[in-house]
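Side project, low priority. Logging it here so it doesn't get lost.
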Amino acid sequence: MSYDYLIFIGRFEPFHNGHEEVVNKALALSHKVIILVGSAYQPRTLRNPWDYSEREAMIRLCFSSEANKRILIFPLMDYTYNEPLWIRSVQQLVGGVVHNNIASHAKIGLIGRYKDSSSYYLSQFPQWGRVDVENYKNLCATDIRLAYFTQGTLSDVHPHIARELEKFKHTPHYEQVALEQRFINSYKKGWENAPYAPTFVTVDAVVIQAGHILLIHRKAQPGKGLMALPGGFVNQHEKLKDALLRELREETRIKVPTPVLAGSITKQEVFDDPYRSSRGRTITHAYLLELQGDSLPKVKGGDDASHAFWVPFGEIKPEQMFEDHFHIIQAMVG
């Protein structure tokens, strides 16, 4: 064996025949294979329709019991706006596995294929060896997902996975993702004849007080029912801060005078991950508002929010948050 451990990082949405080919190669080259399943604990969308446990089960279905003994699978959270923290998480996960399973210095490698800007991570771990692989039959998980959720067709996955995904088509989760994608397709028709795709500008309010953060439940698609930061689109003749205060007032009806809200702004940051919104290229300006006192102001959902409420910091769950709002909170509040 060339390596003690080979690491394979991916989202595996779904785990297709190309991924299976990479794992088989890794098994041939190493004693153990560490698979890190990225974008763990995300809300269900067309980009991330399956949770971590479902993806782990898909992977296990493709291999024999003997092979599965050599495959170690772990969830890997996104840190969209903190790349050093993501790199540290990978290092810590791998370090924990190696420390617990081998006494001497282990030979570790990273296996994968550099396909586009999303594969940049392959160059972020110079301390490990690198095994490059070719694209197996030019398979693309994005194309497989799109066909599955828009046409109900499925190809290029292991037969065991195909059977499980056929069952998945009869679950509320499938209908939720398919319904949201139909909405997105209809939404994008609004500019299909434009010479260029638009770039949207939005604002989001990160309002905190006494260890709590102000959130809403989204009333409509996309992300219907998910928790979100109060916010929305900037009007054509509106300044950013004015848009923020308007959206905050409309969606939460917060019982705090507007001048006090404006005076409570302590930070502003731009969040521009190209994949942050399924609606299209959307750049948001987030504002941190730090309210004083230990009595939380009354709030009530309005406009695009079915509810508005205060949540303790410790109860925020990324899989229940809309788009990248969990990561915005992490960046703004810590």
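Brief comment: Residues 200-333 form a domain with the Nucleoside Triphosphate Pyrophosphohydrolase fold (CATH 3.90.79.10).
Revisit when time allows.
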